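Researcher: Please predict.
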Amino acid sequence: MACNPVGKLVQEGDRKRDAGMHEEATTYYYNALLRKPKNGKAKEGLSISAQQVLNDKFTSFNKLVVENNVDEAMKVYKNAERYAETATNIGVNLRWPTEYDEVYTDIRAEYVSKLYDEAIELMNLKRYEQAEKTFERIAALDSSYKGITVLRINTVLEPLYQTGLLQMSQGKYKQAYQTFTKIVQQDDTYKDSKKLKVEAIEKATTTIGLLPVQYITGIDKLTQLDAYLSERLMQHSFAYVKIQDALSIKSTLESRGWSIISDAAKAAEAGRNIGMKYVVWLEVQKVAYTESPSKTEQKNAYEAFSENIPNPYTGTYSAITKFRKVTYDDTYEQRSYDMVLSYHLIATQDGKVVLSDIIHPSMKDEQHQYVYKGNIANIYEELPTGNFLPPANQAWRDLFTNVKRQPLSKDQLATETQRQAARQIAGAVSAYFK
């Protein structure tokens, strides 16, 4: 065996494999099989080490995908394909990790789309030679682009058209819209691309309807909640989402005999009736306004004063600062507005409630006016610690001199509470669709 060159290669391969150096081990096993294709130990060694190398390549591929480094991920995947093919050619079949196939298909589509855009831009700049090379790269990655060339525009558009049709059949309407948009930008008469572009955007767009707000019996109706929520959702809206405001929906529903929508099932039915994919249904469960009458309470503070203390050794006087407890008047008013409401985002097709919550928006305002008969520059909220004066709280002292104002009115508090509810609901609904 010592004089057998194939045996030496296998032994060296085993040594590298046992040391965890699988890539180096595969070189020895591969060279052994080139000399003796039927060597069982070399095949076994290559099968183990090459499989580990292939697994490592896919670990790297997955990491690059997570990092959104599509260019490098594509290179690693294609390298893995060549690596597995080389092993097969020498008689060793490696296990291909099929769990990555869908990931690769997705990033390949993204990568090809990027290259296609680059090629079209090069064509627009009349840099046809560079565009042709880019098309060659595309064809090498995706066989559906085979034969694509700048010399025949149909070879450029037809693969894209077929991709768009496939995306439509798979329900990938957003991607289909982008695909047909690219075709129309080059030739808006190409087959029925213009029509399919419109169809794709219609199917890709999610329509959300705001149903009229419902109330528990006996609760006063809120005059602005519908409008504020419509406004907020429209501010949050983004591509492929269309908001239908509550006012127009209310008018449409009433003309069709809908008045009270008492539960999620009826909300879904109402939404289907007016062609909405989703509806937002609100129910106000509580509205409470509280107004506390003006009250005056006495509170404690500490007044600083100086006192001269005789020094028995020098016969002179030294001034020291002392504190005495004093009281001041705190006259205050408080008003608050509180709501409890539930909201539901409902898919109209199956009536499923996909998002719901009970929220408690509230607003409070209070006014304090402090009155002290002495010098406010000498009073403090706290006693000193150690030999230092306590910090002067300017905000607290300002309450002794501020001009008295009226707390916010009931209507003002109601408005701000409804705005708060609208912000909270619109944020949650928008986050769901993003």
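Model: The chain has a mean pLDDT of 88.
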